[in-house]
């Protein structure tokens, strides 16, 4: 007996809509069983993970601050994944964007006169650095046929080691008592806070703007149509005159630019200086977010908020319930697997065919 997947002729929109919700419920149920086996109360864990972060203003702000870079990076990745090319190195592009954009802040530190141009220049340099870094695996793919999965992933470690070297060496604060970090950025090099006394900064608005822009580009422009056509049928796209090479370079540039912008927004916002590490793994987590959001900008925003919520809740569970933080990462991976599985079942019918599997 073999198992076949047959496309559903009449797909239910209701089933499509409820598939990720059902997957989330199943993931929570499995997580509850695991928590119970570890000797903790599933009900208490549920409150800690999903209710407590929504009960206080500071935790809501933390959810938004973690969701913003995830959404921004994932939106860029969605362009690649929709076009059937695989940028797995957004983490490296995030780091490079933060490093080169942050270098502008260090170079202009303490400069007199009007410095209104510093922050826009930082954002532009960070974005362009991400674009340039993403184009390396793209060019290797289209000219030499090298797998973009391997090259983009390996370049992550190059970026992280470069940041570590720069923070400990050339960009280290000479008056920082030998700590491996740069000077604290001037106010002109920091993203403004949305409200006085809060931690929420303008990076959240950048992410929301990216959601709106990406939605319009994918739905209303020729470029968005080209991305969809090439991803759905590369052969038909070539007959239509669309270039695989040009599109690969374009979507990698978009993806790298979004990751680089997220990197400099994180450095100029929450962190405020260059350190040996500026990311808790946003670039890799954003891959989960992109697929959880079904490669839709609005869906990605919702998925980013959910992942950010579980991350903040996981930190609370680590403190209050002594649960390992790795349990949160396992839950996020399980959620992705279940969402993809539910998505497949909503599109295909499982058939058990008698006979010998081939």
Radius of gyration: 22 Å
Helical percentage:
55-70%
| Structure summary, number of beta strands | 2
> What class, by secondary structure content?
mainly alpha
Provide mean pLDDT, rounded: 89
The SSE order reads EHHHHHHHHHHHHHE
Could you give the order of strands across the largest sheet?
Answer: 1-2
Q: How far apart are the termini? A: 10 Å
Taking the sheet with the most strands, its summary is: 2 strands, antiparallel
Total helical segments:
13
Polypeptide structure, described:
Keywords: Cell membrane, Membrane, Transmembrane, Transmembrane helix. InterPro entries: ABC_transp_permease. The chain crosses the membrane at residues 21-43, 63-81, 93-111, 117-136, 143-163, 200-223, 244-264, 284-309. It is found in: Cell membrane. The structure is a single chain. With 358 residues, the chain is mostly helical. It has a domain at 73-310. Helix content is 69%, strand content 3%. A two-stranded antiparallel sheet has the order 1-2. Helix 7 crosses helix 8 (222-232). It is globular. The model has no long low-confidence stretch (mean pLDDT 89).
Task: Annotate the secondary structure layout.
Layout: E1 2-7, H1 13-37, H2 42-51, H3 57-82, H4 90-107, H5 118-144, H6 148-168, H7 203-220, H8 222-232, H9 234-239, H10 244-271, H11 282-292, H12 297-320, H13 326-347, E2 348-353
Concise overview:
With 358 residues, the protein is mainly α.
What attributes does this structure have?
2 strands; 358 residues; single chain; two-stranded antiparallel sheet
């Amino acid at each position: 007996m073999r198992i076949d997947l047959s496309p559903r002729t009449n797909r239910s929109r209701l089933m499509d809509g409820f598939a990720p919700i059902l997957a989330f419920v199943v993931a929570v149920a499995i997580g509850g069983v695991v928590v119970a086996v570890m000797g903790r109360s599933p009900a208490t864990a549920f409150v800690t993970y999903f209710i407590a972060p929504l009960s206080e203003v500071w935790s809501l702000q933390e959810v938004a601050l973690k969701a913003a870079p995830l959404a921004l990076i994932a939106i860029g990745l969605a362009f690649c994944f929709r076009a059937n090319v695989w940028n797995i190195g957004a983490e490296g592009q995030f780091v490079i964007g933060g490093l080169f954009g942050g270098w502008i802040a260090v170079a202009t530190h303490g400069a007199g006169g009007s410095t209104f141009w510093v922050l826009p220049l930082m954002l532009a340099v960070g974005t362009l650095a991400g674009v340039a870094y993403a184009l390396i695996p793209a060019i290797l793919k289209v000219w030499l046929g090298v797998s973009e999965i391997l090259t983009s992933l390996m370049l992550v470690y190059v970026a992280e080691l470069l940041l570590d070297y720069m923070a400990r060496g050339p960009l280290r604060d000479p008056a920082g008592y030998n700590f491996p970090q740069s000077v604290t950025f001037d106010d002109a090099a920091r993203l403004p806070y949305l409200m006085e006394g809060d931690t929420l900064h303008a990076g959240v608005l950048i992410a929301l703007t990216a959601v709106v822009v990406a939605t319009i580009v994918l739905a209303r422009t020729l470029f968005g149509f080209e991305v969809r056509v090439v991803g759905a049928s590369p052969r038909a796209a070539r007959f239509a005159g669309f270039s695989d090479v040009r599109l690969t370079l374009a979507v990698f540039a978009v993806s790298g630019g979004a990751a680089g912008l997220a990197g400099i927004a994180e450095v100029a916002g929450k962190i405020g200086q260059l350190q040996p590490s500026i990311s808790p793994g946003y670039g890799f987590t954003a891959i989960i977010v992109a697929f959880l959001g079904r490669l839709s900008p609005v869906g990605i925003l919702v998925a980013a908020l959910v992942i950010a919520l579980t991350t903040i809740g996981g930190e609370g569970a680590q403190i209050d319930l002594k649960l390992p933080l790795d349990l949160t990462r396992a839950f996020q991976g399980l959620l992705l697997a279940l969402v993809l599985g539910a998505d497949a079942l909503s599109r295909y019918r499982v058939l058990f065919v008698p006979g010998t599997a081939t």
